[in-house]
Amino acid sequence: METIVESPRERFARIAAAPDRDIHLDEAALWIAAEEYPNLDVRAYLARLDALASAAASRLASVRSSAERAARLNHIFFVEIGFTGNHADYYDPRNSYLSDVLDRKTGIPITLAVVYMEVARRLDLNVCGISFPGHFLVKWVDDTDGHEVVVDPFSGTTLRPEDCDARLAQASGGALVLRPELHLRAASRREILVRMLANLKRVFVSRRDFGRALACCERILLLVPDAPLELRDRGLVLEQLACFAAAASDLDRFLWLAPDDPGADAVRARRDALRARMGRPH
């Protein structure tokens, strides 16, 4: 009997359809990379994460508090192994592919956070992601007293509440004041994958690589079907690819779902221009 081999997109779609609690970030992120690298051995990279966790396990076994464990794992992860933020080429697409991050030991905050969280998960440590404005973070939560330790995976440093407040003020132009229950809440796995793909989408749009940008839009919509802004973005990307009917359909759907969006009038004008263009003889 012939074995049916799923494509990376099909594997990702199956993961995206699962309840959030059943989504494995490491596997999902690797299937994102596998669409760029068709011969990627996902199992081999999952084994790399297993090995990183095994190497850290004995070093953390005797440490009790979250603060001490965070400090110890930070030293292992950022100093001894050498994971670091890619300051030299932040917008390199490879920073968003988990396989490249594991190979090169560099990336952007969210992909470094995924590696960090997945190592911690294998060690049964309570570490989660924070979809912080402008810069993804992670936090440790002490199961005994609820104490939290926030870590910046890009710089490898721990952050005090006042540090987070200052970063939020900078990211918002002074418009926001830190509310931990809102700004430091744990991100869902679906949110993390959407943010990873949104970062990648922006890189490809800036490079006018609309084929790859479309692939990002499509995978985001597998995670959050009918998300208005994602439908708008896919419509605009489809327009760049001269898929005018599909573009107009996405913009129509955006306008139906979000008629009061501040950008609705501009999108409506774009949609109408597409329809007019489609009506002209070629």
Describe the structure.
The protein is built from 13 helices and six strands. The protein has 282 residues and is α+β, with helices and mostly antiparallel strands. 59% of the residues lie in helices and 7% in strands. A hairpin with a 6-residue loop joins strand 4 and strand 5. The strands form two sheets. The protein has a four-stranded antiparallel beta sheet. A two-stranded parallel sheet has the order 1-2. The protein folds into two domains: 176 residues, C8orf32 fold (Roll), CATH 3.10.620; 91 residues, Tetratricopeptide repeat domain (Serine Threonine Protein Phosphatase 5, Tetratricopeptide repeat), CATH 1.25.40.10.
Properties at a glance:
282 residues, alpha+beta, 2 domains, 4-stranded antiparallel sheet, 13 helices, 6 strands, globular
State the order of secondary-structure elements, H for helix, E for strand.
HHHHEHEHEEEEHHHHHHH
Distance between the termini: 49 Å
Shape: globular
Strand order in space, largest sheet:
3-4-5-6
The level of helicity is: 55-70%
Major sheet characteristics: 4 strands, antiparallel
Spans of 5+ residues with little confidence (pLDDT < 50)?
Answer: none
Helix/strand-derived category reads alpha+beta
Q: Write down the domain tally.
A: 2
Radius of gyration: 21 Å
